[in-house]
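TODO from last week: model Pyruvate dehydrogenase complex repressor.
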Amino acid sequence: MGGPNLTERITRELETRLIEGVWSPGERIPSERALAASLGVARSTVRAALQRLVARGLLKARAASGVYVSDRLQTGLISPWRQLVGDHPELRPDMLEFRLMLEGTTAYLAAVRATDEDLARMGELVDGLVAAHEQGDTVLESRLDGDFHTALANASHNAMLRHLQGSVVKMLYEHISLNNAGLFELREQASEIILAQHLALWEAIRTRQPEEARRIMREHIGFVWHKLEPDSPAPIVP
């Protein structure tokens, strides 16, 4: 039977799925009927819970289309930094240093926690990276690079790491692209090395070697740092 308590419970369950990234920003969530069936409640209860989340801006309802995840969770935490970083290139080393700490841990956890579905997704992206590299498509290769790092964060199964990763990496890529052609120049000059690093990282995660995954990730970011910020040496991170 429905009621306020049940609606609240279903609302919290859907919130948890949003926080854990079950559905990505911009993705259409399952229908009321499908959610009701999976949650074991009436469609009216699901509808009431969805209406609460729409009212809070976490979901967006589109007429005759469905309900979609908004980008509020992804951008709300870190959006004020976008303009700051755009106006202050000297902040880039700080961002790279943060990535060095963040993504080393992310890679470690991905090697421990990745599910079969996570591994399949990363495998697809690695295949795409190899194909894009062979075709000389640096734009696609750069996009898949970012997607691969996002997939790693998802495979860590840590909600905070995933949200921070998505925000920081997106912001860094936007900053580099807006302020100079560094990312594409780096791709053209050192694409063989970067691809080899991604393949080595993928192998460490696929074979469940967390310490090796962390080491390779730090090596990869250190290499990118050296190329983008040659006058600001990467630190030794414990």
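Done. Residues 78-228 form a domain with the Four Helix Bundle (Hemerythrin (Met), subunit A) fold (CATH 1.20.120.530).
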